[in-house]
């Protein structure tokens, strides 16, 4: 059937063009999801890169949109939580998924909404989470000195000043909103980012009050980690920050010049 043939041909030409232009959303070899306990993450990616990305709070939609956009333009592997809510069910109780990346954090997360645990049941749940966490981190964390970038949004109240007591170096820009900032765990990354237009802090020492969030797990395992925090609704700001981090920290040999184009100024957000 000539008509069908040309339809198929058109489609393969389209696929080829999308792939060549780097706009292909899913690599054929990637599994489609990854689990931490019963929490599912969708995996998206294009091309080869040692940059991994994670979106972990289901209610932070601006961060999800920014990361979806970013993955259409840059290589890397991204993990999107499959949840519409901030909290998810683990061992039958609601927990913040970004508070279970250490046994200590998981213990307080599991107790938060269920105070009457029997000791043996709590221990069994924590043992299971310890095992699941290791398997999950094995896939989530990049190898060979790669970088893990988490995207978050904040609501009223939380800003960079809350993180300063746990940080060793800070580069705060008076023209930037304190609710938009970058946390990194590697001093060399910090140096490259601090000279840019955005607020940047370095947290490269384990805190005594470590809360079980992913940043501390990455630090413990010696993996370079970046957290990009932006006000909820400020999509173009978060896209700019992602672009800035990607271009500043991309391995040398690739074009770094466009990183200086990032103004970091006020955009048209929020939408
Ligand atoms: Zn978050």
Write up this protein.
- The protein is an alpha/beta fold and 271 residues long.
- The protein is 34% helix and 21% strand.
- The protein has helices at residues 2-20, 61-71, 103-112, 119-140, 187-194, 214-220, 235-249; strands at residues 33-36, 39-46, 51-55, 76-81, 88-90, 93-95, 147-154, 169-171, 181-184, 199-202, 224-231.
- Strands 1-2-4-3-7-11-9-10-8 form a 9-stranded mixed sheet, with helices on both faces.
- Helix 2 (61-71) packs across helix 7 (235-249).
- It is globular and about 50 Å long.
Low-confidence stretches: 1-9, 11-25, 253-267
If strands are numbered along the chain, what order do they take across the biggest sheet?
A: 1-2-4-3-7-11-9-10-8
CATH class of one domain: Alpha Beta
Radius of gyration: 20 Å
Bound molecules: zinc ion
- Structural class of the secondary elements? alpha/beta
What's the total number of strands?
A: 11
Number of helices: 7
Average pLDDT score = 86
Percent in strands: 15-25%
CATH topology of one domain, which one?
Aminopeptidase
Shape summary = globular
Question: What is the terminal separation in angstroms?
Answer: 48 Å
**CATH architecture call of one domain:** 3-Layer(aba) Sandwich
What does the largest sheet look like?
9 strands, mixed
Oligomer: single chain
Series of H and E elements: HEEEHEEEHHEEEHEHEH
What's the arrangement of secondary structure elements?
Layout: H1 2-20, E1 33-36, E2 39-46, E3 51-55, H2 61-71, E4 76-81, E5 88-90, E6 93-95, H3 103-112, H4 119-140, E7 147-154, E8 169-171, E9 181-184, H5 187-194, E10 199-202, H6 214-220, E11 224-231, H7 235-249
The structure holds zinc ion.
Zinc ion is lined by residues 57, 60, 152.
């Amino acid at each position: 059937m000539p008509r069908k043939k040309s339809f198929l041909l058109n489609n393969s030409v389209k696929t080829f063009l999308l792939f060549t232009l780097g706009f292909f959303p899913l690599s054929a070899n990637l599994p489609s999801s990854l689990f931490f306990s019963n929490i599912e993450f969708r995996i998206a990616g294009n091309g080869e890169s040692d940059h991994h990305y994670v979106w972990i709070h289901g209610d932070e939609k601006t961060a999800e949109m920014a990361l979806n956009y970013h993955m259409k333009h840059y290589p890397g592997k991204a993990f999107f939580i499959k949840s519409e809510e901030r909290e998810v069910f683990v061992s039958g109780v609601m927990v913040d998924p970004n508070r279970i990346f250490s046994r200590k954090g998981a213990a307080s997360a599991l107790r938060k909404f269920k105070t009457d645990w029997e000791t043996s049941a709590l221990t069994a749940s924590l043992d299971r989470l310890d095992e699941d966490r290791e398997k999950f981190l094995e896939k989530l964390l990049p190898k060979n000195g790669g970088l893990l970038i988490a995207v978050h949004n904040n609501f009223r109240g939380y800003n960079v000043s809350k993180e300063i007591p746990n940080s060793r170096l800070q580069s705060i820009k008076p023209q930037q909103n304190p609710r938009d900032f970058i946390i990194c765990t590697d001093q060399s990354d910090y140096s490259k980012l601090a000279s840019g237009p955005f607020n940047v802090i370095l947290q490269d020492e384990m805190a005594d009050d470590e809360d079980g969030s992913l940043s501390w797990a990455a630090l413990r395992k010696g993996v370079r980690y970046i957290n990009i925090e932006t006000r909820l609704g400020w999509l173009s700001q978060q896209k700019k920050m992602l672009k800035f981090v990607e271009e500043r920290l991309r391995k040398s040999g690739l074009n770094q010049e466009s990183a200086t184009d990032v103004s970091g100024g006020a955009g048209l957000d929020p939408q």
